[in-house]
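dumping this here before i forget
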Amino acid sequence: MKLLDLISIIFANLGRRKGRVALTAVGVVIGTAAVVLLVSLGIGLQRSATSSLWGISDLKRIDVYPGYVEGGPMEIQVGGPGGSQPGVTLITPKTIEEISAMPGVETVTPRQGFFQSAVLKSGRLENYPWIQGMDVEDLAIFEYPLQAGTTQLARGTAVIGGWAATQFWDPRQRPGQDPPSPPDILDQQLRLVLTKWAEDGTMINKTVNLRIVGILAEARAEQDSVLFVHLDDVTAWNEWATGKRVNYTRDGYNQLVVRAESPETVVQIADQISAMGYQAWTPQSTVEGINSFFIVLQIVFGGIGAISLLVAAIGIANTMTMAILERTREIGLMKAIGATNRDVLSIFLGESAGIGFFGGLGGVLIGWAGSQVIGILSTTLTPGAGGFIGAPTTLATHTPIWLLWFALLFATLIGLISGLYPSLRAATLVPVNALKYE
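structure:
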């Protein structure tokens, strides 16, 4: 039998009992729409969660901290370098060499904070940014978005985060007065007043001049509140604050920022660093954990929809069984004039697959439209809701093209499998007995 003839017969047979076929296909429509809608919801929630995590912007980054063993100190001493301590794996220049030699590591940068308090002054306005010293000539290696200026660092210069650049306030501001406008600090010489306390409790100040060479764009990440300076500057300030020379081989660094060549190798490198006795954290591990959770959620959602398709499959099998009983003499006549078992099997399998296909097509369209409506209504009804720090919380949905094709193919396959037993039964009917059937 030719393919075009087969398709023509299948469509003609489906059209003979439009009501029964439509009712059977409704079950497939509901099941397919449920699969598309629920999986779209799971995918949308996953995308929303991973894209709105505060500070998750550099998936190639690994933050390395001193390691602690059982019985050792429980926290980092913030008062200054304390030298070698029992139970602590210090981050030293040798550590930098060892991590830099690891396959897949792109850069390793020491990062050191200022151990005492400091205030950044522009005229009479004051600011209290988080000061971090970086041993790099250009912050561009961290791919921070730049708002203005440059990311190049040298002694006596600084790059400030976008949020910190706007947080100047007037200590002499009176109640009810409007807050001052943020000053134009780019390429300006500002005063950084460092403070330490003597043993008798006396406060001692030291003023250094810093030229702001760059302002980073706000990215809802940690760099928004940081004043980046060169590591040599922070080292000199800490030596003044502690009254002794800083020796990183003896005292260690507060932190290392490691960047991998590819996000795919980040977790593996972090595990290797942890095995060396250090604490290693990477945003990629957080994202992978979230992705694993939402993959399970998508499977659960898809399984719920698949139950509806299972019920629809039973309906298709019942419809095809009834069709065979009604058309037994017709099957006998077909075989009597030369139709083979394969021809009969192809016709009935085609009819059951057709029900699955048209039901799946309707379900795909309804599921896609439903996911769009949910997304629009969610955005409209919750315009200012807050979720992950500054991110909108909406019932997000996302329907990828592959999901639509998969749902359509799956519904067709369900129809094909559901009609397999009735079709085999029809194909194996004995012509003589079929013609005698009343």
